[in-house]
Write a structure and sequence with these properties.
This is Type II toxin-antitoxin system YafQ family toxin. Keywords: Coiled coil, Toxin-antitoxin system. The active site is at residue 84. Helix content is 33%, strand content 31%. It is an alpha+beta fold. It has a single domain, classed as RelE-like (YaeB-like fold), CATH 3.30.2310. The chain has a five-stranded mixed beta sheet. The chain starts with a strand and ends with a helix.
């Protein structure tokens, strides 16, 4: 199991979510921490460019989770969560 690391910006974004969306995010984060493969509907993929070290999954059509897995340290870092426009302008 991966240790979950929460970044400050993620905490702020998470608190702005509805309780229902927080529960959805928590469920996905737990799956990732347990090293479970996400279903295709979550469109989990590696990002490009300046975010090339990170991954993104679509929890809902416009609710995204950006995260990073450090395999050698077993750390899952939650970087940001929110809508596409909130995260990438």
């Amino acid at each position: 199991m991966y240790k979950i690391k929460i970044l400050k910006g993620y905490k702020k974004q998470y608190k702005k979510l509805s309780v229902d969306n927080q529960m959805l995010v928590d469920n996905i984060v737990q799956k990732l921490a347990n090293n479970e493969r996400l279903e295709e509907k979550y469109q989990d993929h590696k990002l490009k460019g300046e975010y090339k070290d990170f991954r993104e999954c679509h929890i809902k059509p416009d609710l995204l989770l950006v995260y990073q897995k450090q395999e050698n340290l077993l750390i899952l870092t939650c970087v940001s969560v929110g809508s596409h426009s909130d995260l990438f302008g």
